[in-house]
Amino acid sequence: MTTRFDSPAPRTPIRRTLGATAATVALALGLTLVGASGAQAWDPGPGSGHGGGHSQTLAPRTQFTMAPDGSSGATVGGEGIPNIDSDKKTIATYYGDPGTGIANKTASPYITEMASIVSREAAKLSSLYRDAKRHGEKPAIVFDADDTTLWTYDMEVGDMHFNFSPAEQDVWVQDQRFPATPSMVAFVNKAAAMGFAVFGLTGRNDDQKAATLGNLSKVGYTPFNTQNFFTKWTGVGASQQPSYITCVTAKCTTVEYKALTRKHIESLGYDIALNVGDQWSDLQGGYADRALKLPNPTYYLPSANLPGVSQPWLAPRTHFTMAADGSSGAKVGGEGIPNIDSVKSTIYTYYGDPGTGIANKTDSPYIREMRSLVQRQLPAVAAACFVGKKLHKNPAIVLDADDTTLWTYDMEVADMHFNFNPAEQDVWVQDQRFPATPSMVTLASVAQKSGCTIVGLTGRNDDQKAATLGNLAKVGYTGFTAANYYTKWTGVGTSQQPSYITCATAKCTTIEYKSQTRAHVESASGGRYDIVANFGDQFSDLIGGHADRTIKLPNPTYYLP
């Protein structure tokens, strides 16, 4: 989706002239006018011109529709995908994580929500027990392990940074490092004391069974033992698929394994009055009177349901409210936070990534959206360049680097796995590895031919300037020059903060750096350019004024406020 941050001004003779000029320039350059008229698309709207602007309109979306399987990436547009950095911040807020990857073990929205969920469920235990006994059955409750009885946040985030590693998980399991999931020790022990048979049912394997039981005992659970705790077979030695589990294919799904194990438990004379898990796949497939879903936005383990079984109520939410700064984590609850694995899958779909971390360079929803965005914006930008040149206004466009002119997806995802590493980024920069952002070489070329000077303005530093200019030239940009390419100072040697930038604190914000650099570009000492358009993939590239027009490019892979 193209995000517009300018509003149409009333039509005037000069606007009609510029609209006609946009059409003329478009025809001369072989462009296609798409969508709004040239006059509407060109006008900056009130307050968005030099020296200021209505920056409050330059803000991320807060409402999202996202299917859990990632398919929404084909339809919602880049701005309609929850930004993964904002999602991480929201999750951190929810778990009381100050940014270290370690959850607060005393107080957090998650702990509060768990206490509320468990309190409500504990109040129902007596009636559940009586109902089962009334039917002459042995009442039982089944509990999953990870994030149902044992809490994995510190491993998932502090250690793995949301990138699961089976080998590292086994280290945590064998070392019995996991704390108890909040409120669950008292709940499990109370159920056992009331007379419920307690069973554990986990996707952890048989080689991890002893350590898992040790960890459960260590944090205070009393009912679990080798007879009532089910782990998954490894296929090695005596650890083989049990006869009571038959699967559609050679590899059993989570639902097949868990539902058929519950069926086996009930075949032993138990009535599973309650089944508790943090994943929908823990709960699907039946063989339990009730299911209790615990919140967990830190990973998503989907599974097909049993053949012929439909349980639409056991499905993730698809509509979310999320503030970009992560503050929503304090109030929306765990199910109201976009699950990070679903966010990743949606991003993969959007970029045509088959799961390798490499974007499709030929066709994808992202490429098509970029093409459409440029087609809509370019006629008006070209007209502004053309008219500005004719009127001797020294027109220019300003272009950010990363994901505005150079495309970083493969670095961000295949190499860094959504966890930015400055040292590794510098390797990519110095090696000039980045392809061009789709359609942007064309945009820069047409703007230049129409009379605009091309100005680069990036958060990359002075030590990366030469390599960045080399990369831009390598992928087809012709308008950038060292004189009109602004990189950030390092504070070392001659690379110092320029006199035209003054900041509120010792460390300048992105907006201070970029908006004051644009002001400099428009000043006499900077060339007295008229910035007719400012392009960026981050809102902080655009806020602060000093541009007639701002164009936000889509980028859900990181957020730089």
Automatic annotation (TrEMBL):
Keywords attached to this entry: Signal
Top-level taxon: Bacteria
Pfam families from the UniProt entry: Acid_phosphat_B
Key word Transmembrane present: no
Region (Disordered): 63-83
InterPro entries: Acid_phosphat_B-like, HAD-like_sf, HAD_sf, TAT_signal
SUPFAM superfamilies in alphabetical order: HAD-like
Record protein name field: Acid phosphatase
Species annotation: Leifsonia poae
Source taxonomy: Bacteria, Bacillati, Actinomycetota, Actinomycetes, Micrococcales
